[in-house]
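Project standup — Tuesday

K.O.: blocked on the structure for the chain from last sprint. Re-posting the sequence here as requested.
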Amino acid sequence: MAKKIPMRQCIGCSEMKSKKEMLRVLKRAEGDIVLDATGKMNGRGAYLCFSKECLKRAIKTKGLERSFQMKIPSEIYDSLNREFEEKYDR
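H.V.: unblocked you, prediction finished:
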């Protein structure tokens, strides 16, 4: 029997992809929001494609705010943008 592949929905484009093809954005218990490269950190996760467009769309449609059920300050979006550009912009 084939192993089941965990699928997640991008909060930017709403496409379903396998967990390994996506970037996890994490809200930790302390309330801070970070990119989780390992996908194993503790906390509430939301997923994004490895594309700047999806991040922009998630910001515009308030995808992160819906996922984490909280207001997200613009500084967090700015730091996510910077971190995304440094590590994942392809």
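K.O.: great, moving the ticket to review. The mean pLDDT is 88. Residues 74-87 form the longest helix (14 residues).
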